[in-house]
Design goal:
single chain; mainly alpha; two-stranded antiparallel ribbon; two-stranded antiparallel sheet; 12 helices; 8 strands; zinc; ubiquitin protein ligase activity; isopeptide bond; UBR7-like_UBR-box; zinc ion binding
């Protein structure tokens, strides 16, 4: 069943007409499908984080959505991070910075870093979380250029990419190379972290995704070089891609034969399991010669499984504090999959099921109610946006109370005239 939806001011072409033929037509099924896609993206970003309970009691959470409160911890104060639930309950009227996801972090809300605020969800907390790590992201600054995002003074459109070691975000033009297309790689390690994790250069020659070309000062001025690859380079890259594809195919076949199936698509292999192969894979790669550069590196989805897990390498990872590199559940992709898989049992939309069970008249009535709600809620929230004020829980409650009251009055009048 299709219905004419009212367009908001400033929407796409065709919205200025008066006649019904010029009005955009969408079905309620399309609206619900779009809403489901937005909810899916939100679940992926939040990674299954609890919006009602503070994560502090869980200790250092392996990976979670985090926020920084610039109202409570402005630049110059000690950096602090808060969980999703505390961002709602304790800092709802404050200025928050979305940090996306950080690993091994414990919620700081209400501890000694917050001079005049006590956590409403868990008042009794330790003074500090000594295991937490902080960077300039907690002040809204990113990359080696230490700029905010979005940056009102930056006229260059540039993708921000997160380093999976230090977890800072970098402009593509500040990584020492021109990054491959975003769909060609899954993870990035920045220049500084490549120096720290120097052993990765031995793996980069065989497993990293080739960058396009070296970046130079011209790119800082907004000029991007388009360097054509030589025929010899193209042949070499194709050869490497074929070899990697064959290797991945063989691995999948082996997994299907030897490994039991799991009910969850987000299941991760065990961490730190020693390889049955004799010797050290890292030493074998280093014997072939290692080329180091002052650039970032880009990696495919399965590269962590290639890292050696012999006793010496595991000790090295521990000393460098990068044990997480051998954990494929540490990846952001695994984190996002967790957020979506946690909702697998709730995939069926009850509203869609109800709509399908209705007759045509009932569907039209429901669509009209939906359009009324959408229009009135949009107008109501626009007032807050124009005034620059925060929408509070009581404001939403007040809106729905008024909406129900207007609905009852309309229904009463209809009953009066129809009697």
């Amino acid at each position: 069943m299709a219905a004419a939806a009212e367009e908001e001011e400033g929407a796409g072409p065709g919205g200025g007409g008066v006649g019904a033929a010029e009005e955009p037509v969408v079905s309620l099924a399309e609206v619900l499908a779009e809403n489901e896609e937005l909810e899916k993206e939100a679940r992926a970003v939040l990674g299954g984080s609890d919006h009602e309970r503070c994560s502090y009691s869980q200790g250092a959470v392996k990976r979670q959505a985090l926020y920084a409160c610039s109202t409570c911890t402005p630049p110059g104060a000690e950096p602090a991070g808060i969980c999703l639930a505390c961002s709602y309950e304790c800092h709802s009227s404050h200025s928050l910075l979305e940090l996306y996801t950080k690993r091994n972090f414990r919620c700081d809300c209400g501890n000694s870093k917050f001079k005049n605020l006590q956590c409403k969800l868990l008042p009794e907390k330790g003074k500090v979380n000594s295991g937490n790590k902080y960077n300039d992201n907690f002040y809204g600054l990113y990359c080696i250029c230490k700029r905010p995002y979005p940056d009102p003074e930056d006229e260059i459109q540039d993708e921000m990419i997160q380093c999976i070691v230090c977890e800072d975000w970098f402009h593509g033009r500040h990584l020492g190379v021109v990054p491959p297309d975003s769909g060609d790689f899954h993870e990035m390690v920045c220049q500084a972290c490549m120096k720290h994790c120097h052993f990765l250069w031995a793996y980069a020659a065989q497993y990293a995704v080739p960058a396009l070309t070296k970046a130079n000062s011209l790119e800082d001025e907004g000029v991007v070089l388009n360097v054509e690859e030589t025929e010899e380079q193209k042949k070499e890259i194709k050869k490497e891609n074929r070899a990697e594809h064959q290797e991945i195919k063989e691995e999948k076949q082996t997994e299907q034969i030897n490994e039991p199936s799991t009910s969850s698509g987000s299941a991760c292999p065990e961490v730190g399991v020693k390889s049955e192969e004799s010797g050290c894979k890292l030493k074998e790669l280093q014997s072939k010669g290692v080329s180091k550069k002052d650039t970032a590196t880009f990696w495919p989805s399965n590269w962590r499984s290639k890292l050696c897990t012999c006793e010496d390498c595991l000790k090295m990872y521990s000393e460098l504090e990068v044990q997480f590199l051998t954990d494929e559940c540490d990846t952001v992709l695994a984190y996002e999959n967790k957020g979506t898989s946690d909702q697998e049992t709730d995939k069926r939309d009850p509203l869609m099921d109800t709509l399908n069970s209705m007759n045509r008249v009932q569907q039209v009535e429901l669509i009209c109610e939906y359009n009324d709600l959408k229009t009135e809620l949009t107008d109501y929230l626009r007032r807050f946006a124009d005034e620059g004020t925060v929408v509070k829980r009581e404001d939403i409650q007040h809106f729905f109370e008024e909406f129900q009251s207007r609905k009852r009055r309309r229904t009463d009048r209809m009953q009066y005239y129809c009697s």
